[in-house]
Design a protein that fits this description.
439 residues, two-stranded antiparallel ribbon, 7 strands, binds adenosine-5'-diphosphate, binds magnesium ion
Length: 439
């Protein structure tokens, strides 16, 4: 059965909640900043409004009510501030602060003409401010609903309760003061919030980087352990293989069963050696290319010699056409070709019995490049598999390492060349190596 390539599960929830926690912390930070400044800000706008109403010779009772409301509001704010000097601000405090503000505004607007009051505009920045702080969410919706309820209440109050609108030009001055004040508070909070968002982005970037660096380090550590283990296993395995061969020779000729068993042991050892070789050549640093003038045809013939037995037992013929020379590292290039050709032979061997599959290697000496095409008439590679071909550990073979194509590609790339695959399922595959002639 083919081994299914595994994919790592993603955990979006962990990151989302980390982001939400960060966002919440920043929002509460901005809220704390705002709550600290709020009493002073309220004092300023209260002085302006009460001053203008006094100048307009507005009703004394109504001015008294507004003054009292502002005073209560400021005392409440100071209390809030004192309370939260030692305790952290939470979402509930922030939400309640918004509702209390809307309530006091409702009182002031209700005392200066209802919805036609010059102060009516000030409901808007509070509602917008809540939305900016919370974004789309339950709190924003509730605050907006409350603002609508206050507005409706104001609209329904009879004229003798809400009184008359202050006279011109004081009404205009009051509207202007409320508008400018609202804009100022809103913009300064939004500026602060957008700074906070920037901080969040920075923090997330740093977190992401930490995660990536950590994963890289872990990956490198694992790789080096893997290489070390593979290396350490090589010698004991060679010893076992040698001893098994000795054992095989010392068996009596009639001991067929034991011979069979030893043959299995030997083939398993060979398989282990192949796996180790794949890992080790994959781990070997790609830095030291030893380039020399390489006869590609001879190199291909050498690879054929290595694969001869395997090809013969699979009933696959090996053919070569053309020749060329390149400046390359012969050992590495041979390794790459061996991997590509081994795959081609393996894929061809799965053809229906009776067919005569062959693997053809065409060497083309073009102007500046040498093109080597390895064509097989094997089972072919599906589109999805083709996309994953060459990523480490991608294999469909039982006992495969999934490193062959990856290694071949990195060798070719290091030589300044390119390795591409074309395939038709059921018809065969062509691997194309393009290597620059000169280094
Ligand atoms: P391995 O040979 O250890 O499986 P490789 O990297 O050499 O790893 O190949 C990865 C996979 O690509 C193979 O398992 C096989 O499914 C597919 N493959 C590579 N070359 C061919 C080919 N010529 N024809 C069909 N499949 C191929
Ligand atoms: Mg392979």
């Amino acid at each position: 059965m083919p081994t299914k390539p595994t994919t790592r599960p993603t955990v979006p929830t962990a990151r989302t909640s980390r982001y939400q926690a960060l966002r919440r912390a920043q929002r509460l930070d901005v809220a704390a900043w705002f709550l600290r400044r709020r009493p002073a800000l309220t004092f300023v706008i209260a002085s302006i409004n009460v001053g203008l109403l006094l100048a307009a010779h507005y009703s004394w009772q109504r001015i008294g009510l507004i003054f009292g409301a502002y005073l209560t509001y400021i005392v409440y704010q100071l209390g809030d501030w004192l309370w939260h000097r030692r305790r952290p601000i939470d979402d509930r405090t922030l939400f309640r602060a918004g509702l209390v503000t809307l309530t006091f505004m409702g009182i002031n607007i209700g005392a200066t003409g209802g919805l036609s009051s010059p102060l009516a505009i000030s409901i808007l920045p509070v509602t917008v401010g809540t939305f900016v702080a919370y974004g789309r969410g339950r709190e924003s919706l509730l605050a907006a609903l409350y603002a609508v309820a206050v507005s409706l209440g104001l609209a329904l109050l009879p004229v003798n309760v809400v009184g008359l609108r202050p006279e011109y030009p004081y009404d205009v001055a009051l509207t202007l003061a409320s508008t400018l004040f609202g804009i100022f508070v809103l913009l300064s909070s939004m500026g602060r919030l957008s700074d906070a968002m920037g901080t969040i982005e920075d923090k997330l970037d740093r977190m992401r980087e930490d995660v990536i660096v950590g994963a890289e380090q872990r990956g490198q550590a694992l790789e080096s352990i893997g290489a070390k283990v593979a290396h350490e296993l090589k010698n004991p395995l060679a010893a076992i293989k040698g001893l098994t061969q000795l054992l095989d020779r010392s068996l009596a000729p009639e001991d067929a069963r034991a011979r069979e068993r030893i043959a299995v042991v030997t083939s398993e050892i060979t398989r282990m050696e192949t796996i180790l070789r794949d890992y080790l050549s994959f781990e070997r640093p790609l830095t030291d290319l030893r380039r020399e003038l390489v006869d590609v045809a001879r190199l291909v013939d050498d690879v054929f010699a290595v694969l001869e037995a395997r090809a013969a037992s699979a009933g696959v013929g090996l053919r070569r056409l053309g020749s060329a020379s390149v400046m390359a590292d012969p050992r590495r290039l041979k390794e790459a070709l061996l991997n590509i050709l081994a795959n081609a032979v393996e894929a061809s061997g799965e053809r229906a019995p009776g067919s005569q599959p062959s693997v053809d290697v065409e060497i083309d000496d073009a102007a500046d490049v040498v093109v080597v095409r390895v064509r097989d008439h094997g089972r072919g590679i599906g589109k999805d598999e083709l996309a994953r071909l060459g990523t480490p550990f991608f294999t469909t073979r039982e006992g495969g390492t999934g490193l062959g194509v990856c290694l071949a590609r990195s060798v070719v790339t290091q030589h300044g060349g390119e390795l591409t695959y074309d395939s038709v399922v059921g018809a065969g595959t062509t691997a194309t190596l393009t290597l620059p002639t000169a280094a």
